[in-house]
Amino acid sequence: MMMMMIVVIMVILLTKRMNGVAKELVGWPPVKYRRWNDERRNAKCVKVKMEGVGIGRKVNLSLHHCYESLLHALKGLFPYHFNVGVNGFDEHIVTYEDGEGDWLLIGDVPWEVFLQSVKSIKILGRSAA
């Protein structure tokens, strides 16, 4: 069914071009797709790995405005692996790799500097740190 629709659209476009009328197809590309594509261009996604978890995740840093928001999102990415304490990370240390390849603790630098330099995030157990 979808293939048939694509063929019909192609025939219509070719017919219009053959008649000397090269009009654009109205409503294409869909607005939602264009909006989604623009949001993707502005995204700052980094990989997140947690010690003891085989599958990594990605987090979009442009959706967060501070460290607390980011840490809350990280807890949501790995919901079954955290023993929640007072601050939510009593048994884990959250680190990040900066542009020079150094591993630093999250919260050591201002948020804006962190956004510019972060390449990946790693969550370690206290025993590993």
TrEMBL record:
It holds the Pfam family AUX_IAA. It is found in: Nucleus. One of its GO terms (biological process) is auxin-activated signaling pathway. InterPro entries: AUX/IAA_dom (IPR033389), AUX_IAA (IPR003311), PB1-like (IPR053793). It comes from the Eukaryota. Keywords: Auxin signaling pathway, Nucleus, Repressor, Signal, Transcription, Transcription regulation. GO terms for cellular component: nucleus. Residues 1-22 form the signal peptide. Residues 43-128 form the PB1 domain. Aux/IAA proteins are short-lived transcriptional factors that function as repressors of early auxin response genes at low auxin concentrations. Homodimers and heterodimers. Belongs to the Aux/IAA family. This is Auxin-responsive protein. The lineage of its organism: Eukaryota, Viridiplantae, Streptophyta, Embryophyta, Tracheophyta. The gene is LOC120267703.
